[in-house]
Amino acid sequence: MGLFKTFELSVDLGSSTLRVHVKNQGVVFCEANLIAVENETGRLIAIGDRAKSMIGRENKKITVIKPVKNGVIADFDACGLIIKYIIDKFCKGTMIRPYLIIGISPLSSQIDQHLLMEAAQNAGAKKVYLLKKPVAAAMGNGVNVTNASGRLVVDIGSDSTNIGLVSLGTVVSNTAIDVGSSNYDKKIIEYLKKRHSLLIGDITAEKVKIMIGSVLKKEETEYFEVKGKSLKKGLPAVKRISSREISRLFLDDIKKIIEAIFDVVSNTPQELENDVKRYGIILTGGGSLVYGAQKLIENTLKLKVTMSENPLESSIIGLSKATEQRQSLDKLGII
User: With bands split at pLDDT 50, 70 and 90, how would you rate the model's confidence at 60?
Assistant: First the structure.
């Protein structure tokens, strides 16, 4: 029976994180969406967090590749290597090629979609289905996407924010802007460099963001000791910084997100705009976790903003649900 077992996989190719779900097993992979390849042969050397650890340590023989940038696939060959790795690792012991459902940006062109499906099939997939990420995120937050009512999804990712209005399983209106949580990291790095003459890296900046980052002033000021390198002395140094002093660094970016949401709603048919006013916004993605983001969006747009219960995993949860409903969604033309 094992030789003829059929595997069904859901794949979320995020800008920063690669998540893989196997039906009846759950999420089996959640690491950095990076690969390291041998330049001469194109052979896969490392994937995920192991590839991430090689950044800055590459040599003439090895290159670290980020296959997805700003939510859109930038390297289809790299995606093919990733999918082959996934199939080889998680679909062992069977002669039957697996079914794949892959989340894609609604901005992906027909050519991009064709190239991705071709890469996945060449990597060993029996059949490949594509589901637009706003639809996946809506499903991941318990929305029945086959209904006609419109639901607005705002996904603040690592290096981009995707805003999509979902109705009848399709993305009726959408936009994407190059603003994400990594923008906040970069601004924290730049601020500490200028204000405190302290040099830190991306990982430390992310820790600062998680611990004391905000876009609104907190009732009680919080502090965090940041370890870095003194630009004045060239030696390791520690600076104690407050939530108050970095609270406005990400404010302009959140305002850009609010403007983009307003534009999508403004260009929405009246019936669906009424749905948005009724149901409000589903806020998801890692960037939504920044303190004050939900409240600022809600107060500015005068719309109810519902925070996702699993903002980092909305898409993969939705993709896994789509796997469970694969046949019915296929008949409806949603995948």
Answer: confident
- Check: CB of residue 116 under 8 Å from CB of residue 102: yes
pLDDT tens column, 3-26: 778 999 999 999 999 999 999 999
Amino acid at 134: P
Order of strands, sheet of 17-22, starting from the edge strand that comes earlier in the sequence: 26-32, 17-22, 8-13, 99-104, 127-132
3-state secondary structure of 311: coil
Do residues 328 and 169 lie in contact, with contact meaning Cβ atoms separated by under 8 Å? no
Q: At what angle do helices 76-90 and 110-122 cross, to 10 degrees?
A: 40
User: Mean of the pLDDT values across residues 271-288?
Assistant: 95
3-state class (DSSP) for residue 182? helix
Q: How far apart are the first and last CA of the chain?
A: 29
318 touches 5 (CB < 8 A): no
pLDDT at 1 over 70: no
Whole-number Å distance between alpha carbons of 243 and 226: 12
Of the candidates 112, 170, 108, the residue with the CA atom closest to the CA atom of residue 136 = 170
